[in-house]
């Protein structure tokens, strides 16, 4: 972890976050606390870390909490967009677990919905639904609290290579994948009617998976192909062709991976609308997207109110069935970080008769007699 504007190689002795016993496969910064980060690893665990206010001076080896529940490596972690301390993880055991990080408990276990590898998971804007893309070529829309699939599309993209699916702010779903002829495709879907896509575009025959990064404020999607040296971006609108090509940013070196700065981390005085962190073999390089404007005044069309750092719900409220949209803030005077509260984990007493994460299979398949006996 180093200052966002410092680029190039870093010293070998730089402090790191190192508590996993296997490679870390995914990380996600908490949207409600700028010092908290979740990581999923090949060691089958999810760890949640509290970074000191002024960054690392020593390497960090002790997570705030270790979440154990997956039986295979954990390739995906994703914080709930509006509820505090709610974290989703997905593993190669084809299970999705939703945790209350504040108590260290797995409260929802969706272990019978995916028959094949999960490529990615995306929350919708208020965190009431998730959508997933899987190796079986299906996109599923899932209500995690009811533990049911509310919509699905077979052969979203016909090709065998990996897909991605993300929710947009209006509730539609954007996907990337490959055609039967191995052409890269992007598509837009209405989850209420998944028969036909709203739009489907063929791109090119490159074989890098297209990773979508979405800005709900401007409705722009940035597509970063793995191994490409370019970023293409599109605006999503209500009118045909729905997915409008805007432009391509090109560079010399291919990207090995890409990170995306949250909107409140951007420089509004420079009309910066997106900042990427491009991973090279030996360094991390910021790529800054700006919209040229003659005026020095705040450009309110570029910066509508954006999701702020305050959670709209507590974890318990969400698990009980409440929904809430993100709490918005203005960026007119830039983002002034507030004081982050430390993440406190209060482990529940295991003897408090609380059943473990409700597995659908347990609820359905438990024979009557066994259920009586266990009670």
Could you explain how this protein is built, in words?
The chain is 5% helix and 37% strand. By secondary structure, the chain is mainly beta. The chain has a domain at 13-112: Lipocalin (Beta Barrel). It has a five-stranded mixed β-sheet. Strands 1-2-3-4 form a four-stranded antiparallel β-sheet, with no helix packed on it. A four-stranded antiparallel β-sheet has the order 9-10-11-12, with no helix packed on it. Strand 18 and strand 19 (230-236) form a beta hairpin. 34% of the residues are buried. Residues 361-375 have low confidence and may be disordered.
Give the topology, please:
Elements (H helix, E strand, L loop, with lengths): L23 E6 L6 E6 L3 E6 L14 E4 L5 E6 L6 E6 L4 E5 L4 E6 L7 E6 L6 E5 L4 E5 L4 E6 L10 E4 L5 E6 L5 E6 L9 E4 L7 E6 L4 E6 L4 E7 L6 E8 L6 E4 L11 E8 L4 E7 L15 E2 L7 H5 L8 E2 L28 E2 H6 L2 H7 L1
Parallel strand pairs: 8-26
Antiparallel strand pairs: 1-2, 2-3, 3-4, 5-6, 6-7, 7-8, 9-10, 10-11, 11-12, 13-14, 14-15, 15-16, 17-18, 18-19, 19-20, 21-22, 22-23, 24-25
In short:
Keywords: Actin-binding, Coiled coil, Repeat, WD repeat. WD repeats lie at residues 17-59, 67-109, 111-152. The chain has a domain at 13-112: Lipocalin (Beta Barrel), CATH 2.40.128.
**Overall outline:** globular
Task: Please trace the helix and strand order, writing H or E for each element.
Answer: EEEEEEEEEEEEEEEEEEEEEEEEHEEHH
Instruction: Briefly note the CATH topology name of the domain at 13-112.
Output: Lipocalin
Mean pLDDT score, rounded? 91
| Count of β-strands | 26
Poorly predicted tracts of residues: 361-375
GO biological process, one term: actin filament organization
Organism: Anhinga rufa (African darter)
Keywords: Actin-binding, Coiled coil, Repeat, WD repeat
Family: Belongs to the WD repeat coronin family.
């Amino acid at each position: 972890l180093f200052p966002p504007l410092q680029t190039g190689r870093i010293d070998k002795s730089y402090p790191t976050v190192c508590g996993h016993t296997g490679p870390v496969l995914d990380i996600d910064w908490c949207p409600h606390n700028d010092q908290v980060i979740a990581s999923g690893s090949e060691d089958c665990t999810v760890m949640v870390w509290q970074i000191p206010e002024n960054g690392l001076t020593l390497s960090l080896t002790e997570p705030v909490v270790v979440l154990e529940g997956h039986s295979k490596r954990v390739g995906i972690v994703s914080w709930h967009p509006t509820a505090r301390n709610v974290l989703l993880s997905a593993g190669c055991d084809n299970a999705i677990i939703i945790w209350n990080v504040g108590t260290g408990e797995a409260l929802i276990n969706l272990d019978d919905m995916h028959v094949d590898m999960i490529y990615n998971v995306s929350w919708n804007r208020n965190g009431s639904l998730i959508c997933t893309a899987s190796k079986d070529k299906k996109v599923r829309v899932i209500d995690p609290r009811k533990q049911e699939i509310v919509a699905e599309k077979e052969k979203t993209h016909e090709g065998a290579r990996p897909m991605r699916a993300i929710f947009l702010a209006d509730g539609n779903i954007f996907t990337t994948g490959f055609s039967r002829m191995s052409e890269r495709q992007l598509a837009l879907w209405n989850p209420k009617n998944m028969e036909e896509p709203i739009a489907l575009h063929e791109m090119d025959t490159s074989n890098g998976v297209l990773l979508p990064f979405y800005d709900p404020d401007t409705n722009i999607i940035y597509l970063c192909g793995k191994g490409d040296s370019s970023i293409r971006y599109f605006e999503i609108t209500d009118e045909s062709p729905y997915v409008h090509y805007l432009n391509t940013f090109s560079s010399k070196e291919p990207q090995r991976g890409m990170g995306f700065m949250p909107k409140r981390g951007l420089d509004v005085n420079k009309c910066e609308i997106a900042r990427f962190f491009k991973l090279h073999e030996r360094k991390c390089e910021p790529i800054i997207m700006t919209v040229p404007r003659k005026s020095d005044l705040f450009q309110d069309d570029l910066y509508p109110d954006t999701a702020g750092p305050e959670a709209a719900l507590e974890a318990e409220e969400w698990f009980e069935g409440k929904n809430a949209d993100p709490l918005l803030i203005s960026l007119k005077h830039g983002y002034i970080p507030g004081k982050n509260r430390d993440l406190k984990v209060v482990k529940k007493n295991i003897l408090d008769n609380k059943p473990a994460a409700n597995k659908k299979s347990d609820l359905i398949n438990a024979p009557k007699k066994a259920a009586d006996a266990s009670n």
